[in-house]
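@channel sequence for tomorrow's demo:
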Amino acid sequence: MLIDFFYALRAARLPVSVREYLTLLQALQSGLVGPANPDACSLDDFYYLARTTLVKDESLFDPFDRAFAAHFKGVQAVAGEGARAIPADWLRQELQRLLSDEQKANAPKLDWDELMRTLQQRLAEQTERHAGGSKWIGTGGTSPFGHGGHNPQGIRIGGPGGQRSAVKVWEQRLWRDYDDSAPLGPRHLKLALRRLRKFARQGSALELDLPDTIRATAANAGWLELRQVPERHNLVKVLLLLDVGGSMDEHVHQVEALFAAAKAEFKHLEIYYFHNCVYDFVWKHNQRRHSERTATLDLLHTYHRDYKLIFVGDATMSPYEILQPGGSVEYANAETGADWLQRLAHHYPRHAWINPQPAGLWPYQRSIELIQQILGQRMYPLTLRGLEEATRVLSK
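structure tokens (generated this afternoon):
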């Protein structure tokens, strides 16, 4: 019964294999979701089961959702001659009407063929807006066509769902492609940062391979047979320098999401703070930044040049803070911020600056232009596309 669904996913260019399709069927037959009878499985249950078994990567969730909706939910215009666009005014809900139990019980109930045929007739006959009725396309009533009312088996046209009983939904697509220029949430950040991870197997076979051990033991009539694999180590080392305070306060939520994603993705991660521009010291804890400082030169001596250096900041400041000795807004720095940035970039050849400020504003900030020049144009916006470009440079 799901062969057409399988081919719909393949037509949507989703990398779904026959083996994964058979796994889905096996899960349904075994009653993994809902009752043991697969016919009683709800559409929501089936959606999550299908997505779990058929989708290999989070970046494919949107194409899968679109293909699923097109195949199962009828998210398309009703086909047939005579169909036409429904004026938006017909679907405007001015007030929520309270329907009595009797009105709800007497709501028209049409079977599938009659429902489709009647909708075609309403589209041909209706010329004005209706609300609160049981016949025409409108809002707030018991008609099978419209939204905001009550009908146990109607076609929802426009508006949000309420009773979760519509047999068909007539509206524009409910999903959209990932916007690689939009602000990022934690999931998108993790997807982009995973490009930096490079794993290598080192040493002898010291890590227990539990799934293979179970399979081997079962095949050996229950006699324990241990299977091992080389222990996996994450070789990526990241030195993260975060701008904090001042103009960065308005970007705190984005940077916190990046911070959380980076901590989850990298085993070897060192984090320090600075304000506006890096000078001769950084710090680990903002509450103790005046009493517990780390000399920037100590960073160069402590962390080898195989670390990937990532600056995170809006780079928005007075140009004097970059070009002038003593230009720091907090103290009289002996060397310019430009000197320290050049020193760090030279020591860590794989470096990048992530800027949460929208890229469209960059040309209006002289300080951003200066830092771009110092770092060889390795400044990227805090968007999915920007992070992908940054991680591509850092991975070289």
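heads up for whoever presents: The mean pLDDT is 77.
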